């Protein structure tokens, strides 16, 4: 079952980008702007995605 809202976080790397790309391929839409922070070692990203209203969830 797909969630109506997800907040995906991770280190700013290819893995994070692939997770966002997969969510978009699955049918999610970006919601708002990405968030960035620095934990003293790495840049950490966060991006909210939503399931489009009216679209069936598997």
Short structural summary:
The chain has one helix spanning 14-26, and strands spanning 5-11, 29-38, 43-50. It has 58 residues and is of the alpha+beta class. Strands 1-3-2 form a three-stranded antiparallel β-sheet, with helices on one face.
Task: Describe the protein's topology.
Layout: E1 5-11, H1 14-26, E2 29-38, E3 43-50
Antiparallel strand pairs: 1-3, 2-3
C-alpha Rg, in Å? 12 Å
Strand order of the largest sheet: 1-3-2
Helix content: 10-25%
- Structural class, judged by helices and strands? alpha+beta
Provide mean pLDDT, rounded.
Answer: 93
Proportion of strand residues: 35-45%
Helix count, DSSP H or I runs of 4 or more residues: 1
Could you list the spans in which at least 5 consecutive residues all have pLDDT below 50?
A: none
Q: Which series of helices and strands comes N to C?
A: EHEE
Query: What is the count of β-strands?
Result: 3
Shape type: elongated
Separation of the first and last Cα atoms: 5 Å
Largest sheet: 3 strands, antiparallel
